[in-house]
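Q: What does the assembly look like in three dimensions?
Context provided by user:
Components: four
Sequences:
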Amino acid sequence: MNKKTAEKVANTLKAIAHPVRLRIIECLENDEKCVNKIVECVGGKQSITSQQLNMMKDKGVLACRRDGVKVYYRIANPNVIKLLHCIGSHCKNK
Amino acid sequence: MNKKTAEKVANTLKAIAHPVRLRIIECLENDEKCVNKIVECVGGKQSITSQQLNMMKDKGVLACRRDGVKVYYRIANPNVIKLLHCIGSHCKNK
DNA sequence: CCGATATATTACTATATATTAATATATCAA
DNA sequence: TTGATATATTAATATATAGTAATATATCGG
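A: Here is the predicted structure of the complete assembly.
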């Protein structure tokens, strides 16, 4: 892996290496959800969740579409789900 | 995933979410290596590499053994390799 | 346009992580 | 014990990330 690739990969990993962001991803695993639902699902403040969502969108982990007043987020990079399972199965027995 | 698990997973991810640390892991993919070799392999200063190695050891990603004057590091958590491949295959085509 | 609901942005402070240079410790052979 | 090689630690600063509160913008029905 060359340095540039390493930086890209590190960037993607950093994008999800956060407890709340992991939970957001998990919550979006099966289907898209609007911000409202995501906030409920992970249980924080709206503005914080919005920041996290935006950050992950910037890094290409999530994508979104607006439908009227609501904005629906979904997982743009399916590998993060695999990744989540991968690392999850390791951490369980710790 | 509950909050505690999310924190553990985030911790492991943070441990590898760094360009140099990713390259270290890659360099240890097939066999253990002494610090010297690792420094050569990733091309930084010895003390920095040592810090990274220690950090990853602390977080359970790596393990090491001393043999005389040399210290050999190896991957302690095989899932990080899978993880690397997972995310690597995504980032390639970007 | 106005009010209501949904989402995003800003500005600020706190905390964590990275970087760098210098120095310390460990092991062994002579 | 001394010198040489290998590795680890410390201390200081820079930079990035997180957390918080307040406010702004967007969409739409009426």
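Follow-up: The first strand of chain A starts at residue 33 and ends at 34.
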